[in-house]
Amino acid sequence: MFSFGTVNFIFVVFVILYLPRIWCWFAPFKKQKRVFNYKKNKLALIIPARNEGNAVLPLFESIENQTYDRNNFDVFVVVKEYDDPVIEYAKRINAKVFVDVTQTCKGDCLDSTIKKMLKEYPEKYDGYLIVDADCVLDSTFMEEMNNAMATGADVINAKKLVKNYLPGNQNTCNLVTACNGLIWTFMDEMGNRWKSDHGFTTMTVTTGILFSKKLVEKWGGWIYRSTLTEDMELERDCALQGYKTFYYSYAKIYMEEAPTLEMTNKRRTRWMTGVTHSDLLYGPKLLKKEKTFHNIANNYYVLCLWVVYAYVAALILIGGINLISGFIALFSISSATHYFAMTLYCFFGIYLIFFALTAMAIIVSYDQITLNFIGKIKLLFVHPLFYMKYISIVAKALVNKEPQTWEVIERVKVQK
């Protein structure tokens, strides 16, 4: 039967295979180089706002407080119904409103909107930004995104922070929001920072993101609609097509985190289902690319979650076999202690890698997390268990190839 040495060997192999990704964790300890753009690009800010109600008000307020001259950017709000109250809110900030009654997912919404914009405002915009309705923009967001355009990147990612930590939102901040909020630290500062600085494809999320005029006109709309997570399709196609991506930590956007575990699980189930489906869709194409060092390394960073999947699956298999063997041993003359100990050891092996991730993420974002010291200690030990929920989510996604439906996600109530 499996020994402790077997588990130790699997752990060492995993660390070796995952080491290039771990190396990215240390990038935020050095400040990113600032970029300045003397050109004031004309920008279009697109906000999908289907059934968002007054959840859009903090975003609209932050738009009005931008340091970037409003003459240099226009706002487009997209709704599904002609009687959506968001339309009246949009008028307050002089935003243009598109109504798309046929949209069934965010990809549909973006596709119809971009097509209308290219038709009605040809050649007008140098860059197209997408921001979700429940976000809030830092006052320099538009200015810094314009600065980032000086890099010549086709896709630019902003730094994602937790909106619930902002003053006035403390009633929506708890251990659940803190747990899910760490994903942005891991994705951006502990991932995208290093990848961006070394010319590798960054992980894209279609909020707080900018696309060049050249890329949007090439698409002629929005072409990533095979899964519900259009952002994960985008990332993989950027790697496939060789589009230049850039992550700029000085452009900041605040993301809303659900304060209940039920809402959070609904969100991350939908997202991780799209991640795995996008991998299955684009993975074979990426692996067929020309075998240059850059392409091989880039594929690794795009698909390296599968290293984690393999490690976790191996320990679950070993732990499961030992658990069954332990129960069998209870009904025989054999000792069940060894089997149960092995099961716990496998569980600890999974918990340990998520604990290390959690510890580093808390160190990197320590000042941003508004939990008190005891709350941060709880976060340190609870978050690995929170992350282990992804095991069942990913397993279900690999078995179920049907895409998730575009359900309405409950929003945090806006205080008057």
Keywords:
alpha/beta, 13 helices, eight-stranded mixed sheet, 416 residues, 11% strand
Write the layout of secondary structure elements.
Elements: H1 4-24, E1 43-48, H2 57-64, E2 73-79, H3 86-92, E3 96-99, H4 106-120, E4 127-130, E5 136-137, H5 141-148, E6 155-162, H6 175-197, E7 209-212, H7 213-219, H8 230-241, E8 245-255, H9 261-287, H10 293-303, H11 305-330, H12 337-364, H13 373-399
Parallel strand pairs: 1-2, 1-4, 2-3, 6-8
Antiparallel strand pairs: 4-7, 5-8, 6-7
Helix pairs in contact: 1-6, 1-11, 6-12, 6-13, 8-9, 9-10, 9-13, 11-12, 12-13
Question: How would you describe this protein?
Answer:
- 53% of the residues lie in helices and 11% in strands.
- It has an 8-stranded mixed β-sheet, sandwiched between helices.
- Helix 9 (261-287) crosses helix 13.
- The chain is built from 13 helices and 8 strands.
- With 416 residues, the protein is of the alpha/beta class.
- It is globular.
- Give me the side-by-side strand order of the main sheet: 3-2-1-4-7-6-8-5
> What characterizes the major β-sheet?
8 strands, mixed
Helix content: 40-55%
Strand content: 5-15%
Task: Give the termini separation.
Answer: 62 Å
Helix/strand-derived category reads alpha/beta
Enumerate how many helices there are, as a single number. 13
How many β-strand runs?
8
Taking pLDDT < 50 over at least 5 consecutive residues as the criterion, the unreliable ranges are none
- What best-fitting shape do the alpha-carbon axes yield? globular
Mean pLDDT: 91
The ordered string of helix (H) and strand (E) elements is HEHEHEHEEHEHEHHEHHHHH
Radius of gyration: 23 Å
Assembly of the depicted chains: single chain
